[in-house]
Write a structure and sequence with these properties.
alpha/beta; seven-stranded mixed beta sheet; 25% helix; 25% strand; disordered N terminus
Length: 202
């Protein structure tokens, strides 16, 4: 192994070897409920699989990650696909979510509870959040991620209490992982007044 590779940040090393991959199945599934393409933030989006997919559908996407390697590779892939993509290096262990007035925030496979609770504050009224994070039941079949990086069962709605839940589900995915999946909308005026466990109309 070359010395330069060993000296890289662990996330840089990981992203140097991975493929971009396909977008989240849940994100693709809920696309009709996201509204018209506008400003979107992909949080801890790595190589940009979700950001690139959204950009290809007309969203003005900013990809947020701590890995310089991931952001560079995502930018290269965006140019190859002919789509526009902004990137921003942010370490969410030390910094808050940037900006406000986002029409869509995508948060997939990353757990940072203090920052997750600020998602509603960063959305514009009527803006959506798509969240997908593994729960502790995932340990029944997989040793990783370890427990500190997993949601408790039923925990996600409480971390996103500023949102009206349009969809919320927990269960095993087709590829055998136990995920909490949430689609929420920031109310246009006042606090959320109802909670739903399944698809909801506007």
């Amino acid at each position: 192994m070359p010395l330069w590779f060993r000296n890289m940040d662990r996330w840089d090393r990981r992203h140097a070897e991975e493929d971009v991959g396909e977008p989240s199945e849940f994100l693709v599934e809920v696309e009709p409920e996201l509204g018209s393409p506008a400003r979107a933030l992909d949080v801890a989006g790595g190589l940009g699989r979700n950001a690139l997919w959204l950009a290809g559908r007309g969203w003005e996407v900013t990809l947020l990650d701590r890995s310089v390697v991931a952001l560079r590779r995502a930018a290269t892939e965006a140019r190859r696909r002919g789509v526009s993509l902004r990137t921003a290096r942010v370490d969410l262990d030390r910094e808050p979510l940037p900006g406000e007035g986002w029409h869509l925030i995508v948060w997939v496979h990353y757990l940072n509870r203090p920052v997750l609770t600020t998602v509603a504050d960063r959305l514009s009224p009527g803006g959506r959040a798509v969240v997908e994070i593994a729960t502790v039941r995932n340990l029944e079949r997989h040793p990783r991620p370890p427990r500190p990086y997993l949601l408790e069962e039923g925990e996600a709605p409480g971390l996103l209490s500023g949102l009206l839940l349009l969809r919320y589900e927990e269960g095993w995915t087709d590829d055998g992982h136990h995920q909490a999946r949430l689609l929420g909308r920031k109310p246009v005026g006042g606090p959320p007044d109802r909670r739903l466990s399944g698809p909801a109309a506007e």
